[in-house]
Structure formats: C-alpha cells, structure tokens
Amino acid sequence: MSSEARVTRRRALTWSAAxxxxxxxxxxxxxxxxxxxxxxxxxKTPAALIAFAADSEVDALSGxxxxxxxxxxxxxxxxxxxxxSGDEATAAKLDDLLSLVTGSHxxxxxxxxxxxxxxxxxxxxxxxxxxxGAAGTAWFVDxxxxxxxxxxxxxxxxxxxxxxxEDMLDQALAKLDESTEVxxxxxxxxxxxxxxxxxxxxxxDDTLVGELRFAIDGENGVxxxxxxxxRGASQPAWQVSFTQVDFTAPDPSVFAFTPGxxxxxxxxxxxxxxxxxxxxxxxxxxxxxxxxxxxxxLPMDAxxxxxxxxxxxxxxxxxxxxxxRVLQTALVSVLLTDDGRVLAGAVxxxxxxxxxx
Length: 357
Prior knowledge:
It is built from 7 helices and 20 strands. The protein has helices at residues 3-11, 46-54, 77-84, 88-102, 165-174, 308-317, 349-356; strands spanning 34-35, 60-69, 104-112, 115-122, 125-132, 137-142, 147-152, 180-184, 188-190, 193-202, 209-217, 223-230, 238-246, 264-267, 286-288, 295-298, 319-321, 324-328, 333-337, 342-345. Helix 3 (77-84) packs antiparallel against helix 4. It is of the alpha+beta class. It is 19% helix and 34% strand. Strands 1, 2, 3, 4, 5, 6, 7, 8, 9, 10, 11, 12, 13 and 14 form a 14-stranded mixed sheet that branches. Strands 15-16-20-19-18-17 form a 6-stranded antiparallel sheet.
C-alpha cells in the first residue's frame, strides 16, 4: 500500500461515536496494555484519541507480532481424524488449519510503502508472504513443502499480509456509530513503547462481544495491540500484539525473493471478480438486523446432501435447537437450519434462532 493511499484511508475515518458491525476477522498473543505509574501521556478525549490514530502516517516498520485465539470451540480433532481415514494429505491440511484458528503464532512483519513481508515461524515450519508492489506480485512460500506460488495483485493493490492491530483498528474506526460506547482506558506500555488505551463497548446485550481494546502508540498513533473479549469473560478470546517494533524502513533485501533450486513454482491467475448482475437470479447472502446484533444468512443449498459420516460429524460438533443445529463459540454462533440455510453472527443462540424463523 502506498503512503498516499494509506494516509487517505486513515484520514477518511471520522469520529461518530461507535462501532457498527463487530470486527472478528482473522483471528494474536496479546501482550496486554501494561499499566504503569511511570507512563503519563497527555490526556486525550475519546474523540481526540480516535482522530490521533486516524491521522497516523507511519508507512514503514518491522517487528514481531504474536497472535492467539481462545474461542471456546468444541473438540475439532474429529475433523482431521475423519479425513485421515481416507486422505492423509487432506487430514494434514485440516490439522494445519485447525492449529491456525485455535493456537498461538509468532511472525515477523516488514512493511515499507507498497512492499511487505510476513514471516511465520512456528511448528508448521517457516512460511513467507512477499508483496512486491512495483512488480504487482505476491509470493506465498512454504519452506517445508519447498513450494512458491506467485499471484498477480489486482490493479496494483497491495493486500495486508498479516492480521496486525492496525488492520483491526482501521476496520473498527471505519464502522463507528452510536451503537458503541467509546472510552479511553489506562496509559501503559506495549513492545516497550508508551501507549494510550482505546476501549469500544457495544451498547446492546444482543451480542457475544463484550469489548474491543486497542493500544495506540503515544508518539505516532499506530495501533500496537488489539483484542476482543467475549461478554462476561475476563480474558480476551482473540488477541494480536507487537512484542517488538521498529519504525525505521527495513533493508530492501528483506523484501527480495527469488525461487531457488528445488523449489516448485506455481503461477496463479487472478480469479474472475466480475460482480453478479443486479438482475441475476443467483441467491445472495442476506443481512438481518444491524450493528453488533446483525446476522448474516446464506442462501439454501438445495443440491447439497450429507452422507452418514458427515452427518455424524455434524452432530458431534453442534447442539440441537428449534429449527436446526447450532455451533457456539465465545464470539460467534452458527445456525444450520433444517431447511438448509446457514445463519451466523456475533450473537447469542436465541438471537440467531429468532432470525432464522
């Protein structure tokens, strides 16, 4: 992302008092905002702190981020186990996927204008994402499988390569409205830097989300940590934080990637992103309600049938409710209706069931 584009996006965010739709994408370990008597930043009102964060113009940094999630999911081991009976490769991929949504992960992040790199180092092996803004290409590299996949960037767009606190803050500020109370918490320290604490609290009981917290760098306004805590919980269910950060531009060599000998290279083309014609009969998702209590309903898939093994797996992961079965996590509920629809939202089960009637 260019510096001009980033500044334009941030400055377009204006104070209007709260968050409309909860930001739950992506699943980090948060180093909590550590309150310290030695930290006493100049006082800011909620409106002033939001404006300060929105005007941040930092376009280059490097650092280490940690991510974790504790969503209260049911035992998902049966997913990989079931696949293993027929396809070891699929089972391995499912196991990797489950670890991403349930475990903790550490990654190095490098940003400089339109160039970016994410370097993940954990038990899954080293994986890298390189974004070359000048060439309009993103590389996805897996050291364990010795594969490198190149994907052209659409219209020169540089995607965010990691679920950073700044990404989450951008989404939250873009959807502020009267449905959320906004307050300033206690000054503290994150990644060795003095930070403000911005707290967003839904003004409705019809949501599973209790609050979102952000640590805002006291010098430059960049978000250094973010977390989502479920209603009634004392610890975050989803967290992301820098444990170390440097706001100088990384060495250009960090962003360079050339496939070496023995690396299997695959070139992908951009999928057709042509929008569905307005008069198309194709079913589309429907949003029921608004703000924190909104529910997304996916259309019925009349041609989809489940075999006995799939039905047994579904029963083990869900519980029966009026009109279908539900999967409940700390932050999201999913309803599978008896007539084939899927409804999901950051709402209690009774809200989801009512929306499905």
